[in-house]
Amino acid sequence: MAMVSREIGEVSPNTATGPALEMPAVVLEFVRLLEAVTYRNQANNAIKVAIAYVVDAASTLARSKFGETAIDTFRGRVSNALANTARELAGLGWYAGGGSGNYPGEVVSEYLAAQRNYLDRWIADIRQLRALPGGPYRAQMYAQSAEQVYQRAYMRARGEKAQLPDLPAYPKDGSTRCRANCHCRWEIKRVSDTEYHAIWKLQPGENCEDCLRRAKEWNPLRIVNIDGVWAFATALEPFGGFGL
Q1: Cα–Cα distance between 151 and 147 in angstroms, integer?
Q2: Adjacent-strand bridge partners of 192
Q3: Angle at 179 between CA 239 and CA 94, to 5 degrees
Q4: How far apart are CA 117 and CA 122, in angstroms?
Q5: Residue 226 CB burial class (10 angstroms; 0-12, 13-18, ≥19)
Q6: For residues 119 and 75, is the Cβ–Cβ distance under 8 A?
């Protein structure tokens, strides 16, 4: 997996004539943002590759006689695509958010566990009907759902240094009616030494009722520091609920 170098201001031994100059903060921030955009583009490409792969697997199964070998092959192809894509997206999101070292393994394992449950039910339907309910479009949604891994890893990296709690839901995680078609995103802002705001941002176009509600209720979702521990303010005061 190609990564952008994270070493800033490094000078080649062959060209160094003195100590490396310290980068101004504004330049470092610009480089960080440029890296984040590069990681985001790589993530988009990884998702496109996964979509093409699982759609091809679904089309191949649809042309078969839905024998056990064909169904098992289809299941294996989808499972492998989800696992490989999730690992790649976790790494990209983690580094895009400024994380160091390895990304938290549960970001991938929890996603794959949930997707296995969905896939098991779909495979059961396929075996019973000897058909492909939902067609290639449903396979595409499985690949699209991997986007949540990137966002989860990115947010975990952003919040790691401050030890912020994991957010209650993520776009494309299946907890909204639009499911893998969700185009929303989280935005996190530090408003003081004892408070962060997490905001569920809608994107232009049609949005489902759940996303509209979250954009209202989580605008912002307050994260406050109480006696050295970061927690959601919603646990301390009445709140409309997470809508999950």
Answers
A1: 7
A2: 195
A3: 80
A4: 9
A5: exposed
A6: yes
Pairing of strands 185-192, 229-232: unpaired
Residue 223: DSSP 8-state: E
pLDDT per position as a tens digit, 145-171: 999 999 999 999 988 877 889 899 999
**Residue showing tokens 């994270």:** 6
Q: Is the dihedral of CA 100, 24, 4, 48 positive or negative?
A: positive
For the whole model, what pTM was predicted?
Answer: 0.78
User: Is the pLDDT at 172 greater than 50, yes or no?
Assistant: yes
The Cα–Cα gap between 202 and 151 comes to 15
> What are the C-alpha distances in Å from 36 to residues 42, 86, 154, 159, 187?
10, 18, 10, 16, 14
**pLDDT, tens only, 68-116:** 999 999 999 999 999 999 999 999 999 998 898 999 999 999 999 999 9
- DSSP alpha helices (H): ranges in the chain? 25-62, 68-96, 106-129, 135-144, 147-160, 209-217
DSSP 176: S
Length of the chain measured in residues: 244
Closest by CA to 35, choosing from 69, 81, 57, 2, is 2
- Alpha-carbon distance of 203 to 42, in angstroms, equals 21
Relative to beta strand 221-226, strand 185-192 is unpaired
